[in-house]
Write the structure tokens for this entry.
Amino acid sequence: MNNPVQNQYNQLAKFYDSRWKDYLHNTLTFLKDWSNISPEETVLDIACGTGEFEKLILNESPTQHIVGIDFSEKMLEIAKDKCKNYSQVSFQVKSADNLPFADSSFDVIICASSFHYFDHPSAVLEEMRRVLKPNGKVIILDWCKDFLFCQILDIFLKIFDPAHQQCYTQKEFHDFLKNANFVISRSSTMRFGLSWGLMVATCNKN
Ligand SMILES: C[S@@+](CC[C@H](N)C(=O)[O-])C[C@H]1O[C@@H](n2cnc3c(N)ncnc32)[C@H](O)[C@@H]1O
């Protein structure tokens, strides 16, 4: 049986790219620049949605090996269609806390605007750590509750949106990463537009 997040994104999928066009362009362009992924690195994009990040990467590195996972099959249908001409890019309908990959499979793991949805963030981080190569890096971008707008939105969504889990402050986010035995090598918070607040961290295996 689908959970509320899956149901919501299955229903949203058709409108997702157009509704969030500016947000997606701004956040994912930022994330691409921040990540600094080399063309020979293998990338896992967790909760990849409609494959907008893949599209950005492939525009610059058309031979990049990328795997995207997401538990919304409708979001993934769109991602698969966008990347259909790239045989080295694949997508799987999977949950982030149970990854179907061998240990030490990826050089880079990306997760954009999704951490606040996870029921079990620690289980997801444990899986990320397991499938990351020893010298690999994990880069997570998410909403940040240190910004007033996100605090208000968090309260609002907890009341009105059955899919919403919870936003985290940067400290709470970093505590999750450290407790999962990651070392944070670079991190930042930043404002997008007038009110939206995000945080990003790059981390490595301890
Ligand atoms: C806001 S969208 C972000 C999509 C994409 N990363 C982007 O930046 O456009 C959140 C995505 O997380 C996915 N998601 C949430 N929880 C998940 C989980 N536990 N496992 C897999 N996907 C999940 C949803 O299906 C949805 O596609």
